[in-house]
Amino acid sequence: MTDDTNFNTNDTEPATGRQTQGSDDQRGIDSERLRQATKAAGTLCLVLALLPFLVFAVPQTVGADHGFVILSGSMEPALSPGDVVIVSDAASVGVGDIITFSNGGSIPVTHRVVGVQDGQYITKGDANGNPDSTPVAPGSVLGRVVHTIPLIGYVIIWANTPTGQVALVVL
What we know:
The structure is a single chain. The protein is an alpha+beta fold and 171 residues long. Helices cover 30% and strands 21% of the residues. The protein has helices at 24-57, 152-159, 162-170, and strands at residues 66-69, 84-88, 98-101, 109-117, 120-124, 141-149. A 6-stranded antiparallel beta sheet has the order 1-2-6-3-4-5, with helices on one face. The chain is elongated. Residues 5-13 have low confidence and may be disordered.
């Protein structure tokens, strides 16, 4: 029978049989890999956090033409205040589609097409009881909603306030 206490491997200290922590070189390599992985994960998180804002600012990145922030609850539950809609003017429009259109005011309206009458769209907010009072001419349609980004609009609205602009400059 042999005495195993003096058996030497790379995983034990000589003559004691205790586990070692590894060489200083190995710990340096592991530490460097951890730093690189942490940096890569941080960069990925930053890109993912900024991506929705890029899509809103430059909707052409996803093949669309406009980005709008939903301000009212007239389209709930499909769209809520603070959501961002990305709109394509090249997309075909039909009954059931959500479109953004100009109704003569300074703020565009985003509602669902519920019918077509005399070549014009009859629209209605999902949360509204009745259709909109004025049909929408095809020339007033800014486009069909092709993407929705929830909640990002709150940050965009805040960034357009004096406080938000100062905070963004300071950051």
